[in-house]
Design brief:
38% of the residues lie in helices and 4% in strands. The protein is mainly alpha-helical.
């Protein structure tokens, strides 16, 4: 009886082995490794900016900052950034090489084009490369981007035009091309004031708010001393080292909106510290102050 049970048990075991062999032969064994879960993005990775070609850059002290791209144009783009942010040190009136003294004052391009031209409310340079050539109402004709740069050089920088084939012009153009991915922001002139702009009220606004940075005499606050080529911490708003009377910032339509949305420095443009009336009034006050006279090249 025991032998019979042993035989039956062996028979069942053999049958099970045969079934397993047949199953494997028909369906096979999946030897692929189990899928590895996708790694979670680190905090550093998620903080990286989107590609420069599509993202609006932020070169402010709170932004990602400028990094010259790798590639053959990287050094040229970097020189353009230097020209925008430290104009006074590269082509200012106090640089050692007299042939490089293209700017007539110690301002920087980013004195107006804040954060190296990346602040949306402060005459941004982002995206403008593709808008030229275009018609200039001031010139009464179509101008190139190089010509527009020279307008800044002879007006806002109170200097002279750059030679078209100069490394400085090449640097400016390379930097602006680098910023050409996003769509440009078109800034409309500020609305009309509730009341007519008043110089006396503007003087009060300047004394109570603006003078803390730009100084009571309007001559700005230098990083160092005169003629050391270090530029200004806060630029002068009038006087011999300021922009001349041909600059856009010497016009109501340009200055009022700039002051309203960007001054005092660091203000939230969506929640201005100054009222529209105060911005008009202080602009009227600045209009009464002396500055260099623009002499167009004939």
């Amino acid at each position: 009886m025991k032998d019979r049970r042993k035989i039956l048990s062996l028979g069942y075991l053999g049958l099970a082995i045969v079934v397993a062999i047949v199953f494997v032969a028909i369906y096979g064994i999946d030897r692929r490794p189990a899928p590895t879960p996708a790694p979670a993005l680190s905090a550093a990775k998620t903080a990286e900016p989107p590609p420069a070609s599509t993202a609006w850059p932020d070169y402010s002290s709170n932004g990602f900052g400028f990094v010259a791209p790798a590639g053959p144009d990287g050094a040229l783009i970097g020189s353009g950034y230097e020209l925008i942010t430290r104009t006074f040190a590269v082509i200012g009136p106090d640089v050692a090489d007299a042939d490089k003294r293209f700017a007539g004052n110690n301002l920087a391009c980013q004195s107006c084009h804040l954060d190296a031209g990346t602040k949306r409310t402060a005459l941004p340079l982002v995206g403008i490369f593709g808008t030229y050539p275009k018609y200039s109402a001031r010139s009464g004709r179509v101008i190139s981007l190089a010509e527009r740069i020279d307008e800044c050089m002879t007006r806002s920088m109170n200097g002279r035009a750059l030679p078209p084939s100069s490394p400085e012009m090449a640097g400016f153009l390379a930097y602006l091309r680098f910023l050409s991915g996003p769509e440009p922001v078109r800034q409309s002139p500020a609305p009309s004031p509730p009341e007519q702009a008043n110089v006396a009220r503007g003087e009060e606004v300047y004394g109570s708010i603006c003078a803390a940075c730009h100084q009571p005499n309007g001559m700005g606050l230098r990083w160092g001393s005169a003629a050391d080529g270090r530029g200004y911490r806060f630029p002068p708003l009038w006087g011999p080292d300021s922009f001349n009377d041909g600059a856009g910032m010497d016009r109501y339509e340009r200055a009022v909106g700039f002051i309203l949305h960007n001054m005092p420095r660091g203000v939230d443009p969506a929640h201005p510290q100054l009222t529209l009336q105060q911005a008009w009034d202080v602009t009227a006050f600045l209009q009464t102050k002396p500055r260099p006279h623009y002499e167009p090249v004939r």
